[in-house]
Protein backbone atom coordinates (compact mmCIF):
# COMPACT_ATOMS: atom_id res chain seq x y z
CA UNK A 1 0.00 0.00 0.00
CA UNK A 2 2.85 2.35 0.97
CA UNK A 3 4.65 1.52 -2.28
CA UNK A 4 1.55 2.39 -4.33
CA UNK A 5 1.31 5.77 -2.59
CA UNK A 6 4.97 6.46 -3.41
CA UNK A 7 4.40 5.61 -7.10
CA UNK A 8 1.37 7.89 -7.18
CA UNK A 9 3.34 10.75 -5.62
CA UNK A 10 6.18 10.25 -8.11
CA UNK A 11 3.67 10.34 -11.00
CA UNK A 12 2.27 13.63 -9.75
CA UNK A 13 5.76 15.16 -9.45
CA UNK A 14 6.71 13.99 -12.95
CA UNK A 15 3.47 15.42 -14.32
CA UNK A 16 4.16 18.78 -12.70
CA UNK A 17 7.69 18.83 -14.13
CA UNK A 18 6.47 17.98 -17.65
CA UNK A 19 3.79 20.69 -17.51
CA UNK A 20 6.40 23.21 -16.33
CA UNK A 21 8.73 22.27 -19.18
CA UNK A 22 5.91 22.62 -21.73
CA UNK A 23 4.98 26.02 -20.30
CA UNK A 24 8.59 27.22 -20.53
CA UNK A 25 8.86 25.94 -24.09
CA UNK A 26 5.73 27.91 -25.01
CA UNK A 27 6.91 31.12 -23.36
CA UNK A 28 10.39 31.06 -24.91
CA UNK A 29 9.41 29.66 -28.30
CA UNK A 30 10.51 31.39 -31.50
CA UNK A 31 7.93 33.65 -33.21
CA UNK A 32 5.39 31.66 -35.22
CA UNK A 33 4.17 32.11 -38.74
CA UNK A 34 1.26 34.05 -37.25
CA UNK A 35 3.56 36.88 -36.21
CA UNK A 36 5.30 36.80 -39.57
CA UNK A 37 1.94 37.02 -41.33
CA UNK A 38 0.92 40.05 -39.30
CA UNK A 39 4.04 41.82 -40.58
CA UNK A 40 3.22 41.01 -44.21
CA UNK A 41 1.23 43.20 -46.58
CA UNK A 42 -0.40 40.97 -49.20
CA UNK A 43 -1.66 42.57 -52.41
CA UNK A 44 -5.07 41.56 -53.71
CA UNK A 45 -5.65 41.64 -57.48
CA UNK A 46 -9.30 42.05 -58.52
CA UNK A 47 -10.27 41.58 -62.16
CA UNK A 48 -12.89 43.55 -64.04
CA UNK A 49 -16.22 42.93 -65.75
CA UNK A 50 -16.17 39.59 -67.60
CA UNK A 51 -12.66 38.96 -66.31
CA UNK A 52 -11.28 35.74 -64.89
CA UNK A 53 -8.13 33.73 -64.15
CA UNK A 54 -6.26 35.08 -67.18
CA UNK A 55 -6.92 38.75 -66.39
CA UNK A 56 -3.92 39.17 -64.07
CA UNK A 57 -2.23 35.83 -64.63
CA UNK A 58 0.63 36.98 -66.84
CA UNK A 59 1.25 40.15 -64.81
CA UNK A 60 1.66 38.10 -61.65
CA UNK A 61 3.94 35.68 -63.48
CA UNK A 62 6.16 38.54 -64.64
CA UNK A 63 6.30 40.00 -61.14
CA UNK A 64 7.43 36.63 -59.81
CA UNK A 65 9.96 36.24 -62.63
CA UNK A 66 11.46 39.62 -61.71
CA UNK A 67 11.66 38.59 -58.04
CA UNK A 68 9.48 41.53 -57.03
CA UNK A 69 6.86 39.39 -55.33
CA UNK A 70 5.51 35.86 -54.89
CA UNK A 71 2.09 34.52 -55.75
CA UNK A 72 0.80 33.11 -52.48
CA UNK A 73 -2.92 32.53 -52.95
CA UNK A 74 -5.78 32.24 -55.40
CA UNK A 75 -9.21 32.96 -53.95
CA UNK A 76 -12.21 31.64 -55.88
CA UNK A 77 -15.64 33.14 -55.26
CA UNK A 78 -18.59 31.02 -56.40
CA UNK A 79 -21.81 32.61 -57.74
CA UNK A 80 -23.55 31.83 -54.44
CA UNK A 81 -20.79 33.57 -52.48
CA UNK A 82 -18.93 30.47 -51.30
CA UNK A 83 -15.24 31.29 -51.05
CA UNK A 84 -12.30 28.91 -51.41
CA UNK A 85 -8.79 29.97 -50.40
CA UNK A 86 -5.99 28.16 -52.20
CA UNK A 87 -2.37 28.47 -51.10
CA UNK A 88 -0.53 29.81 -48.05
CA UNK A 89 0.70 33.22 -46.93
CA UNK A 90 3.51 32.22 -44.58
CA UNK A 91 6.92 33.77 -45.25
CA UNK A 92 6.28 35.03 -48.78
CA UNK A 93 8.13 37.99 -50.23
CA UNK A 94 5.50 40.63 -51.11
CA UNK A 95 2.70 38.01 -51.31
CA UNK A 96 0.24 38.27 -54.20
CA UNK A 97 -3.38 37.15 -53.92
CA UNK A 98 -5.48 36.70 -57.05
CA UNK A 99 -9.24 37.03 -56.56
CA UNK A 100 -11.47 35.34 -59.15
CA UNK A 101 -15.23 35.83 -59.36
CA UNK A 102 -17.05 32.96 -61.06
CA UNK A 103 -19.97 35.35 -61.56
CA UNK A 104 -18.06 37.96 -63.54
CA UNK A 105 -21.06 40.19 -64.28
CA UNK A 106 -22.16 40.86 -60.70
CA UNK A 107 -22.90 44.38 -59.50
CA UNK A 108 -20.43 46.55 -57.62
CA UNK A 109 -22.53 46.10 -54.47
CA UNK A 110 -22.43 42.31 -54.75
CA UNK A 111 -18.70 42.22 -55.46
CA UNK A 112 -18.17 44.50 -52.46
CA UNK A 113 -19.92 41.96 -50.22
CA UNK A 114 -17.62 39.22 -51.54
CA UNK A 115 -14.49 41.33 -51.01
CA UNK A 116 -15.67 42.15 -47.48
CA UNK A 117 -15.95 38.42 -46.77
CA UNK A 118 -12.43 37.87 -48.10
CA UNK A 119 -11.00 40.72 -46.03
CA UNK A 120 -12.77 39.46 -42.91
CA UNK A 121 -11.22 36.03 -43.31
CA UNK A 122 -7.76 37.46 -44.03
CA UNK A 123 -7.97 39.40 -40.78
CA UNK A 124 -9.61 36.87 -38.49
CA UNK A 125 -8.32 33.55 -39.85
CA UNK A 126 -4.99 34.45 -41.49
CA UNK A 127 -4.24 37.31 -39.05
CA UNK A 128 -3.43 39.85 -41.76
CA UNK A 129 -3.48 43.43 -40.47
CA UNK A 130 -2.89 45.34 -43.70
CA UNK A 131 -3.28 44.83 -47.45
CA UNK A 132 -2.77 46.55 -50.78
CA UNK A 133 -5.36 46.26 -53.55
CA UNK A 134 -4.92 46.40 -57.33
CA UNK A 135 -8.09 46.51 -59.42
CA UNK A 136 -8.51 46.50 -63.18
CA UNK A 137 -11.53 48.27 -64.65
CA UNK A 138 -14.58 47.34 -62.57
CA UNK A 139 -12.26 45.67 -60.06
CA UNK A 140 -10.92 49.13 -59.20
CA UNK A 141 -14.45 50.41 -58.70
CA UNK A 142 -15.26 47.51 -56.36
CA UNK A 143 -12.04 48.06 -54.40
CA UNK A 144 -12.80 51.77 -54.00
CA UNK A 145 -16.39 51.08 -52.99
CA UNK A 146 -15.22 48.58 -50.37
CA UNK A 147 -12.83 51.14 -48.89
CA UNK A 148 -15.53 53.81 -48.79
CA UNK A 149 -17.92 51.41 -47.09
CA UNK A 150 -15.62 49.71 -44.61
CA UNK A 151 -12.62 51.91 -43.87
CA UNK A 152 -13.58 52.18 -40.18
CA UNK A 153 -14.35 48.48 -39.71
CA UNK A 154 -11.79 46.97 -37.34
CA UNK A 155 -12.78 43.46 -38.43
CA UNK A 156 -10.98 44.04 -41.75
CA UNK A 157 -7.30 44.69 -42.53
CA UNK A 158 -6.65 48.33 -43.27
CA UNK A 159 -5.74 49.18 -46.85
CA UNK A 160 -2.33 50.79 -47.26
CA UNK A 161 -2.19 51.32 -51.04
CA UNK A 162 -4.70 51.18 -53.88
CA UNK A 163 -4.01 50.88 -57.61
CA UNK A 164 -6.84 51.37 -60.10
CA UNK A 165 -6.14 50.44 -63.73
CA UNK A 166 -8.49 51.84 -66.39
CA UNK A 167 -11.32 51.99 -63.87
CA UNK A 168 -14.26 53.99 -65.33
CA UNK A 169 -15.28 56.19 -62.39
CA UNK A 170 -17.36 58.29 -64.76
CA UNK A 171 -18.75 55.25 -66.53
CA UNK A 172 -18.28 53.93 -70.05
CA UNK A 173 -19.54 56.50 -72.51
CA UNK A 174 -20.08 54.14 -75.40
CA UNK A 175 -23.68 53.26 -76.26
CA UNK A 176 -22.81 50.33 -78.52
CA UNK A 177 -21.07 48.70 -75.58
CA UNK A 178 -24.33 48.27 -73.68
CA UNK A 179 -26.13 46.78 -76.66
CA UNK A 180 -23.90 43.75 -76.28
CA UNK A 181 -23.04 43.75 -72.58
CA UNK A 182 -25.88 43.19 -70.13
CA UNK A 183 -26.42 42.37 -66.48
CA UNK A 184 -26.14 44.15 -63.14
CA UNK A 185 -22.53 45.15 -63.74
CA UNK A 186 -23.44 46.80 -67.04
CA UNK A 187 -26.03 48.91 -65.20
CA UNK A 188 -23.36 50.13 -62.77
CA UNK A 189 -20.91 50.92 -65.59
CA UNK A 190 -23.20 53.41 -67.30
CA UNK A 191 -22.34 57.13 -66.86
CA UNK A 192 -24.12 58.69 -63.85
CA UNK A 193 -25.23 55.29 -62.54
CA UNK A 194 -26.41 55.15 -58.94
CA UNK A 195 -23.41 53.04 -57.96
CA UNK A 196 -20.91 55.56 -59.35
CA UNK A 197 -22.82 58.52 -57.94
CA UNK A 198 -22.92 56.95 -54.48
CA UNK A 199 -19.15 56.61 -54.38
CA UNK A 200 -18.62 60.29 -55.08
CA UNK A 201 -21.23 61.24 -52.49
CA UNK A 202 -19.39 59.16 -49.87
CA UNK A 203 -15.92 60.50 -50.73
CA UNK A 204 -15.38 61.86 -47.21
CA UNK A 205 -15.14 58.25 -45.99
CA UNK A 206 -12.01 57.56 -48.05
CA UNK A 207 -9.10 57.58 -45.56
CA UNK A 208 -6.41 60.17 -46.39
CA UNK A 209 -3.77 57.68 -45.21
CA UNK A 210 -4.24 55.43 -48.27
CA UNK A 211 -1.85 56.10 -51.15
CA UNK A 212 -3.55 55.81 -54.54
CA UNK A 213 -2.17 55.24 -58.03
CA UNK A 214 -4.48 55.72 -61.03
CA UNK A 215 -3.28 54.18 -64.30
CA UNK A 216 -4.84 54.92 -67.67
CA UNK A 217 -4.09 54.14 -71.28
CA UNK A 218 -4.52 56.20 -74.44
CA UNK A 219 -4.25 53.92 -77.43
CA UNK A 220 -5.84 56.08 -80.14
CA UNK A 221 -6.48 59.67 -81.26
CA UNK A 222 -9.75 59.87 -79.30
CA UNK A 223 -8.29 60.03 -75.80
CA UNK A 224 -9.44 56.54 -74.81
CA UNK A 225 -8.03 53.08 -74.29
CA UNK A 226 -10.53 51.87 -76.84
CA UNK A 227 -13.28 51.68 -74.21
CA UNK A 228 -12.73 54.08 -71.30
CA UNK A 229 -12.09 57.79 -71.74
CA UNK A 230 -9.02 59.26 -70.05
CA UNK A 231 -11.07 61.53 -67.79
CA UNK A 232 -13.15 58.55 -66.64
CA UNK A 233 -10.06 56.45 -65.89
CA UNK A 234 -8.76 59.37 -63.82
CA UNK A 235 -12.17 59.91 -62.22
CA UNK A 236 -11.03 58.71 -58.81
CA UNK A 237 -9.66 62.24 -58.41
CA UNK A 238 -13.24 63.24 -57.53
CA UNK A 239 -13.07 60.91 -54.51
CA UNK A 240 -9.53 61.09 -53.09
CA UNK A 241 -7.41 64.04 -52.03
CA UNK A 242 -4.86 65.39 -54.47
CA UNK A 243 -2.03 64.82 -51.98
CA UNK A 244 -2.66 61.08 -51.82
CA UNK A 245 -3.11 60.54 -55.57
CA UNK A 246 -0.50 59.66 -58.18
CA UNK A 247 -1.31 59.37 -61.88
CA UNK A 248 0.32 57.50 -64.72
CA UNK A 249 -0.90 57.64 -68.32
CA UNK A 250 0.50 55.30 -70.96
CA UNK A 251 0.34 56.63 -74.51
CA UNK A 252 0.83 53.50 -76.53
CA UNK A 253 -1.09 51.61 -79.20
CA UNK A 254 -0.84 48.58 -76.94
CA UNK A 255 -2.25 50.47 -73.94
CA UNK A 256 -5.77 49.27 -74.65
CA UNK A 257 -8.34 48.57 -71.98
CA UNK A 258 -7.49 44.87 -71.83
CA UNK A 259 -3.88 45.40 -72.87
CA UNK A 260 -2.73 47.62 -70.01
CA UNK A 261 -2.14 44.74 -67.61
CA UNK A 262 -0.03 43.04 -70.28
CA UNK A 263 2.51 45.90 -70.53
CA UNK A 264 5.77 45.43 -68.66
CA UNK A 265 5.96 49.19 -68.12
CA UNK A 266 2.71 48.94 -66.17
CA UNK A 267 4.19 46.11 -64.09
CA UNK A 268 7.18 48.28 -63.25
CA UNK A 269 5.10 51.29 -62.28
CA UNK A 270 2.88 49.21 -60.00
CA UNK A 271 5.84 47.43 -58.39
CA UNK A 272 7.63 50.71 -57.72
CA UNK A 273 4.50 52.19 -56.17
CA UNK A 274 3.76 49.17 -53.97
CA UNK A 275 7.18 47.91 -52.99
CA UNK A 276 9.73 50.65 -53.71
CA UNK A 277 11.58 50.05 -50.45
CA UNK A 278 11.96 46.32 -51.04
CA UNK A 279 13.08 46.74 -54.66
CA UNK A 280 15.97 49.08 -53.87
UniProtKB/TrEMBL annotation:
**Amino-acid biosynthesis keyword on record:** no
> From the UniProt record, which GO molecular function terms apply?
hydrolase activity
Residue span of the signal peptide, if any?
Answer: none
Please indicate if the UniProt record lists Hydrolase as a keyword. yes
Concerning Pfam families, the annotation shows: DUF915
- InterPro entries reported for this sequence: AB_hydrolase_fold (IPR029058), DUF915_hydro-like (IPR010315)
- Keyword list, A-Z: Hydrolase
Read off the PANTHER family from this record.
Answer: SLL1969 PROTEIN
Identification of the protein by name: Putative alpha/beta hydrolase family protein
